[in-house]
Specification:
The complex is a heterodimer.
Chain A (H helix, E strand, L loop, with lengths): L3 E4 L2 E4 L5 E7 L5 E7 L5 E9 L2 E4 L6 E3 L9 E3 L8 E8 L8 E2 L3 E5 L1
Chain B lengths: L3 E2 L4 E5 L4 E7 L6 E7 L6 E7 L4 E4 L2 E6 L4 E6 L8 E9 L2 E4 L3 E6 L1
Parallel strand pairs in B: 2-11
Antiparallel strand pairs in B: 1-3, 3-8, 4-5, 4-9, 6-7, 7-8, 9-10, 9-11
Classes of the chains: A mainly beta, B mainly beta.
Chain lengths: 113, 110
Amino acid sequence: DGGITQSPKYLFRKEGQNVTLSCEQNLNHDAMYWYRQDPGQGLRLIYYSQIVNDFQKGDIAEGYSVSREKKESFPLTVTSAQKNPTAFYLCASSISGPRTEAFFGQGTRLTVV
Amino acid sequence: DQQVKQNSPSLSVQEGRISILNCDYTNSMFDYFLWYKKYPAEGPTFLISISSIKDKNEDGRFTVFLNKSAKHLSLHIVPSQPGDSAVYFCAASDVGKLIFGQGTTLQVKP
């Protein structure tokens, strides 16, 4: 089955700890994305990558870091510098180029206590 | 600054009637638009898209209309069904990434 897998679905961390969210895809897509969803604010872009070993900041990159060492993997680290980390995080992928739709994973709900 | 806006947070319609969801954008360079549907605690799923060279695209019960001069697009669902109840996001394609609106929660009452 081709698709995007995010794990875990629910994640709890103590304040001040870094946490890494996993995203894997077997769709052979070049581009991958991380979005954050908060109530009433839609989906906001954190980071995106069009190709392996390259990535760009989105609108709300502060307090986050990513890597893209393999085509199928795009992990997101939420660092202790992120002031409001509790949110629903969504990973997506697409083929490269304009006018393509992105396919989303099921999301990870991160709660920092 | 929000480049894609969905000004109606929620919409309630009766089963069998038409649902119209609206979206406005500010950047005239956007040339491809998409609608996604999202259930709680799940990832969005792609519904329908439209290129700026068209003003209408239809897929079954779903039709998207684009008015470039007004920088406005809308999604029509006819007839609406209770299973359509979800959050709907419009998105614009911008140089290798998608920019999303805030979403509109649609409730279809039986």
